[in-house]
Amino acid sequence: MAFVELEDGDFVNLNLILRIFKENPREKKWVVAMSTGKIAEITDADRILILKHAGFVRARKEKDNEQ
Question: How do residues 14-61 score in pLDDT, each as one tens digit?
């Protein structure tokens, strides 16, 4: 199982996520609906982290600072 640590310290199992959506487009918080029936609010940074770990967003390689 793949777990992602959120900014608030909670962990989310990627295999249990059904949907990630915004209830109100004007708000900054996102909502995660899971197959267990739990609904959690996450930040935009959490959403990006979840998508990266799930393979939907390509993770950038860090460049070495050569000076």
Answer: 999 999 999 888 998 999 999 999 999 999 999 999 999 888 877 677
Find out whether 29 and 20 touch, Cβ atoms under 8 Å: no
Q: Please give the C-alpha separations between residue 48 and each of 1, 17, 44, 45, 63, in angstroms, as whole numbers.
A: 19, 14, 6, 5, 20
CB 59 within 8 A of CB 50: no
* Extents of the domains making up the chain: 3-54
Alpha-carbon span 54 to 63, nearest angstrom? 23
Specify the pLDDT at position 56.
Answer: 82
